[in-house]
Write a structure and sequence with these properties.
ten-stranded mixed beta sheet; 43% helix; six-stranded parallel beta sheet; 18 strands; alpha/beta; 470 residues; binds 6-O-phosphono-alpha-D-glucopyranose
Length: 470
């Protein structure tokens, strides 16, 4: 840091590191955001502000994995009301089309405001003169306006990783105007899909008097004699495609993928689902489709098995506990009806795995099932494609993911339509190799051509050089 503060500040609910398994040090968190932003933060005298994920832990700024980190502390009570409450029981379900009923609690909103102010304050203290600040995701939507009040000199970008809902749904939120005004503190607001940006602009029109010209909102100064533009754009996030492609070529990973298939009893067809255990992911509908196909003996003499990885997530939130119970009942029923001794019909893993193991699973798979009911992007679909340098494997993809806007060569389905999902699974199982190969090559061109580094660069260029990005 120069004596005047950092040139680039990334602000996210979570720090980009987590405690190592032995509890002694820190290791980089898995995921595209960290891989994308780490090199940028390292190269530009930057820092990352976020929560460690553990309540009641007051840490001093520290260095880990080559990054300088500024922790924001949350008490257990604050984590319950800001993180589990407003972020994950109000905003998360609301922004995913109210698939689960959003809960509205006034004290959670108070906590959300308080914690957003804490993040804004830490950012104002860390940012150097004229710094670039990039705020991430729905947990921190009030930070842009709060930061601008303190530090009108900095450039502020915001990226929403999850969908932005249609106005009919968004307008349920009592604090809908305050949230929009919070976001409008930014210079540039990025969304995954064109439709998310359009939904946001509609909310701006409905809730404020600001002029919207094309995709720019003009914020009038209190005196009315000047305006400040807020640009709104679409920046679909991706994965570190080259890293995954290389990983999936490593001899140990290839060998592991072959061993995995053997361990699964050498099935003719392997289906795979990989998700955080979240009600937005359509896991129950997917399992229902698979179960019905087995009930109907639809695969006829084909020896088939399925692996469902459901990594633990937000386990203190009621809706997630309920979902886990429901999923585990369905898993038990499918296995009870269709397994044979030593060969389960469905392998269910409520665990997280390192990326090497995931790459091996992707490589071992014939049909990848990515069937969320709503998803901002879905990076599992892109990880699968990036790993399939053998040009094999078929992707069944929900049309309600951001990824579906780009990955048109997948077999696209409406995940609520169980019959259509069943048909897509059968089509995928029987897809001639040549056609599957052609589709995978097209998908790979897309994913390798626009990776997460491209995403970060495009957003930051647009934020820092508004004149060049039109
Ligand atoms: C989604 C959100 C992220 C979040 C991640 C994991 O991808 O967009 O902001 O970090 O889920 O959820 P968690 O609540 O564990 O951070």
């Amino acid at each position: 840091m120069s004596s005047h503060g950092f040139e680039l500040v990334v602000v996210a609910n979570r720090l980009p590191v987590e405690r190592a398994a032995d509890g002694t040090g820190w290791q980089p968190s898995p995921g595209g955001l960290v891989t994308a932003l780490k090199p940028v933060v390292e190269a530009t005298d930057g820092t990352w502000i976020g929560w460690s994920g553990t309540p009641d832990e007051d840490l001093e700024p520290f260095r880990a994995g080559g990054l300088r980190l500024v922790p924001v502390a949350l008490s257990a009570e604050e984590a319950a009301s800001y993180y589990e409450g407003f972020a994950n029981s109000t905003l998360w379900p609301l922004y995913h089309d109210a698939i689960a009923p959003p809960q509205f609690e006034r004290r959670w909103w108070d906590a959300y405001r308080l914690i957003n102010a804490r993040f804004a304050e830490a950012t104002a203290a860390a940012a150097g003169d004229g710094a670039t600040v990039w705020v991430q995701d729905y947990q921190l939507q009030l930070v842009p306006a709060l930061l601008r009040q303190e530090r009108p000199d900095v450039r502020i970008g915001f990226f929403n990783h999850i969908p932005f809902p249609g106005y009919e749904i968004y307008s349920q939120l009592s604090w809908r105007r305050q949230v929009v005004e919070g976001l409008l503190g930014s210079d540039l607001i990025g969304f995954q899909r064109h439709d998310d940006a359009a939904n946001f602009l509609r909310a701006v029109r409905k809730l404020t008097d600001f002029k919207v010209r094309g995709s720019t909102v003009e914020i009038a100064s209190p005196t009315g004699d000047a305006t400040r533009p807020v640009r709104v754009g679409t920046y679909p996030i991706s994965v570190d495609a080259q890293m995954l492609d290389e990983l999936a070529r490593r001899p140990d990973v290839v060998e592991r993928s072959q061993r995995l298939r053997r361990e699964l009893g050498d099935p003719q067809i392997l289906l795979l689902g990989v998700d955080r255990l979240d009600y937005t992911k359509g896991i129950l509908q997917r399992l229902r489709a698979y179960g019905e196909l087995l009930d109907q003996n639809a695969f006829e003499g084909t020896d088939i098995t399925m692996v469902q990885v459901a990594s633990p997530s937000r386990e203190r939130v009621d809706e997630y506990q309920r979902l886990r119970n429901e999923v585990e009942v369905v898993v038990g029923r499918i296995n009870g009806d269709h397994s044979r001794l030593g060969t389960p019909a469905l392998h269910y893993l409520h665990q997280s795995f390192p990326i090497e193991e995931m790459a091996a699973m992707y490589l071992a798979t014939d049909v990848m099932l990515v069937t969320p009911l709503r998803d901002g992007m879905n990076l599992v679909a892109k990880e699968f494609i990036a790993c399939r340098n053998d040009n094999r494997g078929v992707l069944v993809l929900s049309e309600f993911t951001g990824a579906a806007d780009e990955l048109r060569q997948a077999l696209l389905i409406n995940p609520y339509d169980i019959d259509a999902t069943k048909q897509a699974i059968l089509d995928a199982v029987h897809l001639p190799k040549q056609i599957a190969g052609r589709r995978m090559r097209a998908l790979r061109r897309r994913v390798l051509g626009a990776d997460v580094h491209h995403w970060a660069k495009t957003f930051l260029d647009a934020l820092q050089h508004p004149e060049a990005s039109g």
